Amino acid sequence: MTTDVSSPAQTLLPSRPTYRKAVQRDLLIAVPLLVLIVGSQVGLQLMQSSIAGDGTGLVWVYLGIVVAAVAFSIVYYSAVLRNSRIDLAATGLTVTNWYGRSRIVEYSQVGTVIQALLRLPARTLPMLFVLDHEGKRVLTMYGTLWTPDAMLALGKAVPVTPVAPAEPVSYRELRKLHPKAFSWARANPVALAVIVAGGLFLVVVVVIIVLFAVLASQFSA
């Protein structure tokens, strides 16, 4: 089948105000966490440096990582608004991601369209999921970037009647219905957070043990 997407009938663009609010929310969570992790590591290295006389090199490594992360975030958030778009045409749509790469999704590939309010641990967001005939997700419109009007426009363009749950649903509930479309990590965010937090805690414990072992060897020498 030949997909005619050279002359899109409609172009959907991200919502700048919606995305700005999402970025501000992310910063409120990410910045304190980053400061806590990096600050603790820098503090340990400075303590070791003041006692044992080495370790300042790692401090600069940590600070370099922070600078690189901030620079990447600025580039990423700017690129999302500049490059992201969805072009709707007669027989297919073209999805362009944040780094400018485009792909075509033919309407004949679409098996299911889900328009729902997604219930997350701390909030509820409008979302749209496009699945192929095998139940795999081929497109997601996040409520942190796209408005409900944009989701409604795409839902009308695709020749498949959207599934619209009457009540907000969670990733876990969606995974039960469409296991190929949603991963275990998305369906179990609390368990994933516990695993990640536990891993970070173990890393900090190991670093502290190593640091005290080094200090003990310095005093015994």
Keywords:
elongated; 19% strand; three-stranded antiparallel sheet; PH-domain like; four-stranded antiparallel sheet; 221 residues; alpha+beta; 53% helix; 6 helices
Can you characterise this structure?
This protein is an alpha+beta fold. It has one domain (10-193): Roll (PH-domain like). 53% of the residues lie in helices and 19% in strands. It contains six helices and seven strands; from the N terminus they run βααββββββαααα. It has helices at residues 16-52, 56-83, 148-157, 171-177, 184-187, 189-220; strands at residues 10-12, 85-88, 92-96, 102-106, 110-119, 124-132, 137-141. The protein has a four-stranded antiparallel sheet with strand order 1-2-3-4, covered by helices on one side. The chain has a three-stranded antiparallel sheet with strand order 5-6-7, covered by helices on one side. Helix 1 packs parallel to helix 6. It is elongated.
Number of domains: 1
Indicate the overall shape: elongated
Assigned CATH superfamily: Pleckstrin-homology domain (PH domain)/Phosphotyrosine-binding domain (PTB)
CATH domain class name: Mainly Beta
For the biggest sheet, the summary is: 4 strands, antiparallel
The overall pLDDT average reads: 83
Count of runs of 4 or more consecutive helical residues = 6
Q: Roughly what fraction of the amino acids lie in strands?
A: 15-25%
What is CATH's topology name? PH-domain like
Measure the end-to-end span.
77 Å
Could you say what the CATH architecture is?
Roll
Helix content: 40-55%
Q: Please state the CA-atom Rg, rounded to the nearest Å.
A: 23 Å
In total, the number of strands is 7
The helix/strand order is EHHEEEEEEHHHH
By helix and strand content, what is the structural category?
alpha+beta
Record the strand order, biggest sheet. Answer: 1-2-3-4
The residue ranges in which pLDDT falls below 50 over 5 or more consecutive positions are none
